[in-house]
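FAQ: What does a multi-protein file look like?

Like this. Sequence, then tokens, then the next protein.
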Amino acid sequence: MGVLACDPVLARLIDDHGPLTIEPADDLFARLISSIVSQQLSTASATAIHDRLTERFELTPAAMLSADTDRLLDCGLSGRKVEYIQNVAHAFDANEYSRSFFEEHSDAEVIDELTAITGVGVWTAKMMLIFGLGREDVFPIEDLGIRNAMDSLYDDPSRAEKREIAAQWRPKRSIAALHLWKHYEQ
């Protein structure tokens, strides 16, 4: 863990959780859909909706574009999230997005590319960077769990102070985020 263990707070979390790793997702489209489902929901709610969605549909751009809206709504998705999922499906289909496409781009370029899709914000794009592409140096300050974990562990720092703390974790900020999420979920 090197640089992360230099932070005494993270060193304790690493001792508690053991080493954590990030693996790129096998299916980038499905990973992005999972992040859209999770937007502004508790983990339990997002999991339940995602489970219903994957039980009833194949998570492919073609399947999402041809899916009946009422059947998607029956999974627990809001009308807006149905729209967002179909926007992502259209973008994947039209742009032929693939792992090789995204691997050729910097984090900032991937965020710009994805946030051009209505329904994909910076948080969702960062989830794709971390969990879709397996990038190890992304700091998702937009995530409430990350902010709450840092508040409890670092004596309620401001957002700017959180960024300064996280800057010390380069080039492993995604791994630090995993530890923060794990702490928050306990």
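And here is the next protein:
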Amino acid sequence: MNAEDDLSPEDLSPEEVRDALPADLDTTAIETPYLFPNNSRRRIPGVLYILIGIACIVVRSVAGDDAVLVNGGVTVAGIVLIVVGLYHLQGGWDLAFDEEHALQAATRQVGFPVGHASAQLGWRGVRSRPTWRILLYSNEPTPEQRGLVLVDGVDGEIIDHFTEKNPEDWTALQG
């Protein structure tokens, strides 16, 4: 251990402080395109919950009324598991529109050349339908416009959009 290891950040001058991303967060090392997880994966646990729920109900019916370890709670658990499994099955939408498709649809919708943009996946409604939330800025050094577009992740339909003159003051960040 050397003397530099004992220094706290307060003891260092601003020129000596170095920030680095951990290796697992360094996006420059990624060699393949990122594939966003598909909501259809919800169907797998849905089927498992339904099968386990059916097994609980079968075990209760086979065990009879005089069983010590198997009582009405096992039936209730089986019913709850089946209901949760059905919810998972209906919420397992296929995410047909990835973030690139959603960004393209949002760019067409806002009507200005897009510079920086960001995509976030959310879910709407009781059925948890996947929806992309796209935040876009116009393509100027200091963006003059910004917009928010909601794009359906299943069929690519534009759900809603909003554009405005950019109210943010970025003059302090210039040269």
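Q: Is there any per-entry metadata?
A: Some entries carry free-text notes. For the entry above: Residues 74 and 128 are 29 Å apart (CA to CA).
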